[in-house]
Amino acid sequence: MSEHCFHCGQTIENNIKIDFDNKIFCCNGCKSVYEILNQNKLENYYSLNSNAGIKPEKGQNYFEFLDTPQIFNKIIDYSEDGITLITFKIPAIHCSACIWLLESIKGINKKIIYSTVNFSAKTVQIAYRNESYKLSELAHFLTDLGYKPVINFETTEKKHEKVDHTLLIKIGIAGFAFGNIMLLAFPEFLENEKDLWLQQYSYFFRILMFLFSLPVVFYCASDYYKSAWGALKHGVLNIDFPIVIGIIALFSRSCFEAYTGISNGYFDSLCGLLFFMLLGKYFQQRTYKSLAFDRDYKSFYPIAVTKIGPNTSQENVLISNLKIGDRILIRNQEIIPADSVLIHGEGFIDNSFITGESKLIEKKVGEKIYAGGKQSGTTIELEVIKEVNQSYLTRLWNNEAFKKDSSTIESITNNISKYFVIVLLIITILSGLYWYLIEKSPSQMYQVITAILIVACPCALALSAPFTIGNIMRVFGKEKFYVKDAITVEKLAKINHIVFDKTGTLTINKASKISYTGNELTTKELENLKALLQNSNHPLSRSLYEYISMSFEFIPVKLYEEIPGKGIKGNVNGMFFKIGSSDFVGAKKKISSDTSVHISINDIYKGHYIFKNQYRKDLKETINALNNYKISLLSGDNDSEKYRLEKIFSPETILKFNQSPQDKLDYIRELQEKGYHVMMLGDGLNDAGALRQSNVGIAISDDINSFTPSSDAILDGNNFSYLPSYLKLSKKALGIVSLCFVISFCYNIIGLSFAVSNKLSPLVAAILMPLSSISVVTFTTLVSRIIGYKMFIHK
Question: Measured between alpha carbons, how far is 627 from 618 in angstroms, rounded to an integer?
Fold first, then answer.
């Protein structure tokens, strides 16, 4: 049975576990955070939400640049009299326990005065004493707790989102008017014989109701007028046009009856209708508003870089200030912010975000290095040859695919509304002519026309799609599939060709199948090997460190040296280890073409570990469940995995390797030109162009809070096997919308048949109109949630 870390809740694999205080932890980082919380009497953190902790990142985090005055002054909120206020973006905030801990850190760190969390924005504002505490130290402190601040080019621009409260104000006004008009109109519905006082002041009450309705009709409904007029100017009849006709008809008839003394009018129904419609619009706008789907290179780049000045002096500068010819210093694991040429040092560049290939690329002095790569090894000196906004990585966003307007695809509602409006107007005109010319009754004609326009108001039609798709989006979100907007759900239902990336999409990031071949290592040798690996930040070293399943006390390492691209060596307890490539450790022959790490002890070759990609759980079953779709695989890696992939995919699947970002984008464009509706699933910056070009771009992320390319949806990698269910549910969503349209049409047909024959008064029509809308909304909410529940309950 698998065990879970007490702090972060992650599954502890390969029996790697740390026992402490009768609890099990997956790493020393989680254990350390647990100790810190208990020492400061903050153990209530775990009672608020079990396994609420965030696993701290390993390796050194470079935050020293924050102490540079130019950068410090740009990112802080306030600094005076020894106190600084800073707002950090912390994506790892995910529950009430996170909020409680971050707002309680002053109990752990006495140099912090207070901290306040904005959960929806994923930010924390901290006030601290800057006389004895550096900003870099504060960032390190948060990282050690598992809440690493995101400090990049984008977060430092200080663009405060302008919150539009107009819709909330309109809802408030409509609700206020609706409630008051109902109170004023209520007595007339109960009195069989008019009370003398009510009868005496009835005209005054009608004036009040009229006045209350004015801001609702002329202000709260203004968006519907603008939408209908805008569509008319372009020769289009949208769903808002008949709604506007119904509002005008209901308001006009109410004014007429109130003025002539026939009745109080239908101001209450009118305000109630607009109140519910505005609520529906608010519901639609609020659905997953906080997710960022259109991040650009600014979200990926660091805020600053070390610039080499005259006399080899060094200073931290904003990357936006870099110019052609500037010389910059890039340390181990730092991102290269602009296209550059290597001047000094040996470059070993990780271009996995650019090409998808995880293999390190060796660069010599004089060679060009593209922006977005990450140095793995010793410090290198570069000369900038292109400014940040002109680099290769940035130009990928300037492709016309990123400028496509998704709103050109008309929604189902607007398509149907064209015909609805035409039919409604024809029925209204014919009915009016019948009562005026044949029945010779102009007064009845006006009543019939009014009843038709009121009862046929397509409010249920207008609300069914946003409420249905909104509920489906909530079901998706609960199952960790975060859809950008309603139109994306519609486009998902039309997909007929699926394109997969390989690295990070079909495979699991930071996970490999590791096997050992060679002379068996003793327990002591394994302990010493793990102690040496602990000093390296290389991805293979970190993976092997996690793989070796044993815990040990601190073991000193002497004569440690890391040679980039080759390996590491050092003396541990009298044993001299070499770990790395076969040539580096002195292996007599190349063992295999797979990624491998070789071991020698005291210059005696021991064996090697082989690393193979670990594909996602149930991948073959998931691909088989998508047999109704055309499938392609595009990978930036070489074809070393082709044989394994051919066993997973059907023979009809197109497999392409060594694909550049532009190749992927062009391939998807070719499919679209052939008439396919393409869904692209990718991971990493190199897939951004292809994701945006596709009809639906889905970013796979094993960490939802990590960098996500421009996309229409974000899918948690752990729920990859649910992909067929998401596609089926999107089709069912359109089926539910269609069923709601049928119900709405039935309401309209029944109501119109009575209205045309003059058997439906405007009062009854005004009551039926909001009732039909409420019933359709209730129906679609229940059905969509039930279907979503049934679809995922067995998973």
Answer: 15
Taking the C-alpha atoms of residue 493 and residue 470, their distance in angstroms, rounded to an integer, is 15
At 21-64, the pLDDT tens digits run 888 888 788 888 888 888 888 877 877 766 667 777 655 556 77
Question: Amino acid letter at 629?
Answer: Y
Q: Are 382 and 336 in contact (CB under 8 A)?
A: yes
User: CB under 8 Å to 446, separation ≥6 — which residues?
Assistant: none
* Cα–Cα distances in angstroms (integers) from residue 341 to residues 154, 353, 369, in the given order: 25, 19, 6
pLDDT digits (tens, 9 = 90+) for 679-711: 999 875 567 778 888 989 888 876 544 445 567
Nearest 5°: CA angle at 709, between 703 and 714?
50
- Tokens 């793989």 belong to which residue? 547
Round to whole Å and give the CA distance between 529 and 552. 11
Distance from C-alpha of 600 to C-alpha of 584, rounded to nearest angstrom: 9
Interacting residues of 300 by C-beta distance below 8 A, sequence separation 6+: 152, 335, 353, 372, 685, 707
CA distance 334 to 312: 20
Sequence length of the chain is: 795
DSSP 628: T
pLDDT at 241 over 50: yes
Task: Name the residue among 433, 429, 436 with its Cα closest to residue 452.
Answer: 429
Distance CA 681, CA 699 (A): 6
CA distance 450 to 265: 12
pLDDT digits (tens, 9 = 90+) for 54-109: 777 655 556 777 888 877 877 887 777 788 888 888 877 877 778 888 888 888 88
Residue with tokens 């935050």: 63
pLDDT-derived band at 629, boundaries 50, 70, 90: very high
CA dist., res. 644 & res. 132, Å (int): 57
CA distances from 99 to 48, 49, 54, 291, 610 (A): 10, 11, 12, 19, 42
Q: What are phi and psi of 368, to 5 degrees?
A: -85, 140
The letter for the amino acid at 385 is I
Distances in whole angstroms, Cα of residue 601 to Cα of each of 167, 303, 521, 532, 569: 71, 43, 10, 12, 10
Query: Which tokens hold the place of 776?
Result: 């359709």
Residue 288: the pLDDT is 45
Residue 678 three-state SS: strand
Q: List the one residue out of 593, 596, 638 whose CA is nearest residue 356.
A: 638
Token pair 């909410």 is at which residue? 781
Q: Where are the beta strands (DSSP E) in 519-625?
A: 558-563, 567-572, 575-580, 595-601, 604-615
Would you tell me how many other CB atoms lie within 10 Å of the CB of residue 168?
12
Q: How far apart are CA 524 and CA 546, in angstroms?
A: 17
* This model's pTM is above 0.90: no
Beta bridge partners of 314: 308
Considering only CA atoms, which of 8, 5, 33 is closest in space to residue 105? 33
* Residue listed under structure tokens 């293999």: 359
**Over 80: is that where the pLDDT of 356 sits?**
no
Whole-number Å distance between alpha carbons of 85 and 241: 51
* The token pair that represents 233 in the structure block: 């100017």
CA 317-320-324 angle, 5° bins: 90
Q: Alpha-carbon distance 106 to 537, whole Å?
A: 32
Q: Is 699 within 8 Å of 691 (Cβ atoms)? A: yes
Phi, psi of 335 (to 5 degrees): -85, 140
Residue 261 tokens read as: 């003394």
C-alpha 560/C-alpha 579 separation (Å) is 11
Tell me the per-residue pLDDT of 257-277, one tens digit each, with 9 for 90 and over.
Answer: 888 877 777 788 788 878 877
Q: From CA 435, how far away is CA 443, in angstroms rounded?
A: 9
Whole-number Å distance between alpha carbons of 458 and 466? 14
Which residues lie across from 340 on neighbouring strands? 369, 384
Q: How many CB atoms lie within 10 A of CB 522?
A: 10
The count of C-alpha atoms lying within 13 angstroms of the C-alpha of 330, restricted to the half-sphere facing its C-beta, is 34
